[in-house]
Amino acid sequence: MKQCPFAGLLAKRANTNPSSCLIYRQLLWVEAQKRLSKTKSVPDTKVTFQPTAAERAATQHKTKQSIDVELKAECNKGYVKVKQLGLNPTSIGSVVVGKGNEVKMKPGEQLLVVNSLYPYTVQFKEDITGSQGAIKKIPQQVEIDGGSQSEAPNMKAAKLTEKVTTVSPGEATKTSGNSGHWSQGLKTSMQDPKMQVYKDDKVVVIKDKYPKARYHWLVLPWQSIPSLKALSGEHCDLLKHMQKVADRMIQQCPETNSLSFRTGYHAIPSMSHIHLHVISQDFDSPCLKNKKHWNSFTTDYFIDSENVIQMLENDGSVSVKDGTSELLKLPLRCHVCHKECPTIPALKEHLKRHFSK
Predict the structure, then answer these.
(1) Are residues 132 and 9 in the same domain?
(2) Active-site residues: which are they?
(3) Where can the motif Histidine triad motif be found (predicted)?
(4) What's the CATH number where 69 sits?
(5) Virtual CA dihedral for 299, 304, 309, 314, nearest 10 degrees?
(6) Cα–Cα distance between 300 and 335 in angstroms, integer?
(7) Residue 291, domain member (yes or no)
(8) Which one of 29, 151, 212, 246 is at 20 to 30 Å from 335 when CA atoms are compared?
(9) Host H or E run for residue 311
């Protein structure tokens, strides 16, 4: 009689193949679920699958290689980045990841770990109740469903949904602004009298906390709308009103005759709650520090307000082109003469030629 290295049971012939050992697969699945349940469900979080000492010992007869896999959720973009840290084969469907490489995994696709022995799927779900140990009322969270070859994995991924609710001016932060996550900061700022410069029954205007130019305001609706993709044709009148308020802010600016302005939205905003940027084109601000800041306002990553309104009127929704996030990596170019500059300090020095204080 021999002892099974996985189940610890006596048998006539010990099972030395993890892929054919049902008990081993079940134990590994239970351990994975325990670790996942301890992970906070917050946007853009990282989860690393790291075998325990017992799991490593169980597979030592077969390989001494690491099977670690790192998952980074990009909730606003609708995918998860999968990075293979160990040497054991990991794939997304038929696409092999490879050690040190990173592949995007969309909801419904399968993550196959160790030669397809352990399949997982990813789901994005809206957390409307919150849970202990996790940040409450996050617009989206990530769930990983795992399974084994002895069990059919859950392949049905929840659709990316964003709920639009109406919130009165006095209750905006009471209902959804106390999540504590930085991406929810606008919902707190819009209630701060020190930040407000204008408000009516539909919108509020606040100073951007980290302005990227001499004049930088944000126009936010009291109605809670997470992002551009949550807009529909019925929001046309609201966005037109937001634009009228933006025009009013520009007209009241003391330097309106010497500075030009743009009004628009980031295609993929980092902050939750839709907001219209009203920004002067001097970009004279110490808060403008890197290429991402610059390109987010000077490339097609910044969608003009009138174009957003036109898309809603014509199509009933706002579409963002694939690869838009790559625009943030473009070289630094002056938005006036299109001269390429090597660094942000060099660009700011160049801009002085176009904009004098």
Answers:
(1) yes
(2) 275
(3) 273-277
(4) 2.60.200.20
(5) -40
(6) 12
(7) no
(8) 246
(9) helix 305-315
Q: How many CB atoms lie within 10 A of CB 168?
A: 11
Strand runs labelled E in 38-78? 46-49, 69-74
How far CA 153 is from CA of 29, 68, 173, in Å, comes to 11, 20, 39
CA 298 from chain center: how many Å?
A: 21
Which of 188-192, 208-212, 259-263, 316-320 bottoms out in mean pLDDT, i.e. has the lowest? 188-192
For CA atoms 354, 306, 188, 225, the dihedral sign is: negative
Q: Which residues contact 215 (CB under 8 A, 6 or more apart)?
A: 253, 255, 259, 261, 278, 279, 280
Residue 104 inside a domain? The answer is yes
In a shared domain, residues 182 and 241: yes
pLDDT digits (tens, 9 = 90+) for 221-278: 999 898 899 999 999 999 999 999 999 999 999 999 999 999 999 999 888 889 999 9
- In this structure, the answer to whether residues 222 and 262 fall within a common structural domain is yes
- What is the per-residue pLDDT across 286-303, written as a single tens digit (0 to 9) for each? 999 999 999 999 999 999
Rounded distance between C-alpha atoms, residue 84 and residue 97, angstroms: 6
Query: Does residue 142 share a domain with residue 176?
Result: no
Distances (CA, A) of 284 to 83, 203, 249, 265, 278: 39, 27, 19, 20, 14
Number of structural domains the chain divides into: 2
